[in-house]
Amino acid sequence: MIEAARVVLDTNVVVSGILFPGSMPARALGKAQGATVLSSISNPIHVCRDPRDDKFLEAAVHGGADLIVTGDRDLLALDPFERIRIVTPVAFLEE
């Protein structure tokens, strides 16, 4: 069971959620709306095999997130990262 107070959604989840109402990403976006937090990044993180995805890890770590919601396989392969769960929109909705 996934319990989260703070959530980071990757760009694909947000864009898909906006473009496809009623989809799993749209439902995940709706569920997470009250839990999102923006924070400044003080120390960059360089661990993902796709360096463009490191920004989501940085946002989660520096924002104190409990969870990253993504469909990105490069990020999902890191689950968990520094005690932060990395899950698909479906897994997030099934909590």
Describe this structure as you would to a colleague.
The chain has 95 residues and is an alpha/beta fold. The chain has one domain. The protein contains 5 helices and 3 strands. It has helices at 11-19, 24-32, 54-62, 73-76, 89-93; strands at residues 7-9, 67-69, 85-87. A 3-stranded parallel beta sheet has the order 1-2-3, sandwiched between helices. α1 crosses α2 (24-32). The mean pLDDT is 87.
What is the element layout, followed by pairings?
Blueprint: E1 7-9, H1 11-19, H2 24-32, H3 54-62, E2 67-69, H4 73-76, E3 85-87, H5 89-93
Parallel strand pairs: 1-2, 2-3
Helix pairs in contact: 1-2
Key phrases:
three-stranded parallel beta sheet; single chain; 95 residues; alpha/beta; 38% helix; 3 strands; 5 helices
Model regions low in confidence, pLDDT < 50 over at least 5 residues? none
Kindly report how far apart the N and C termini lie.
5 Å
**Structure class:** alpha/beta
Largest sheet: 3 strands, parallel
Overall tally of domains: 1
Number of strand segments? 3
Question: How do you describe this structure in short?
Answer:
This protein is an alpha/beta fold and 95 residues long. The chain has helices spanning 11-19, 24-32, 54-62, 73-76, 89-93; strands at 7-9, 67-69, 85-87.
